[in-house]
Recover the amino acids of this structure.
């Protein structure tokens, strides 16, 4: 467990083809079901402080207690995903930490030498910040603000994964409600 961020809640991958990646995870690794959020444009998305019109699709599943996230960026807008893609680094991208004390954890991370790489929000209710770690290339950290509604959504997705029988492995997020 990280003394700075707490336990890892999420492992995320940047992928070329979201549907192909989710299918692989479901059929080969037995992880699913995958809940897809297509063509997301985060609110107030900034990369190194500058606005960026990134567009991406996300897929979320659980393996045990760990959330797995797949990210496919659809445009060439600046982002830490685009940096990985341009460097040919498809694959594991970052570790996510879901925290109620988001602001305090972010302050501590900045005091410890991390710097903000990108940040924004989803649906106006989920704030997130990706932290750059210059001394440890590839060790990207994402902090996600954990509110009651966000936690309830994640608990519901986790429960659906625990009950999954292998049918209908890729679903729109709306089916999780």
């Amino acid at each position: 467990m990280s003394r700075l961020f707490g336990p890892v809640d999420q492992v995320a991958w940047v992928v070329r083809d979201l549907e192909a990646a989710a299918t692989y995870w479901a059929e080969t690794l037995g992880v699913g079901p995958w809940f897809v959020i297509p063509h997301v444009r985060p609110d107030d998305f900034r990369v190194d402080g500058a606005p960026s019109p990134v567009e991406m699709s996300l897929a979320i599943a659980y393996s045990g207690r760990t959330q797995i996230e797949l990210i496919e960026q659809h445009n060439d807008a600046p982002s830490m995903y685009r940096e990985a893609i341009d460097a040919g680094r498809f694959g594991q991208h970052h570790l996510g930490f879901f925290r109620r004390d988001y602001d305090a954890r972010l302050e501590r991370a900045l005091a410890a030498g991390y710097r903000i790489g990108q940040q924004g929000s989803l649906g106006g209710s989920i704030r997130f910040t990706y932290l750059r770690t210059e001394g440890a290339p590839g060790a990207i950290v994402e902090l996600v603000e954990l509110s009651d509604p966000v936690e309830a959504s994640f608990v519901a997705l986790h429960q659906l994964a625990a009950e999954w029988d292998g049918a209908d492995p890729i679903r729109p997020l709306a089916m999780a409600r």
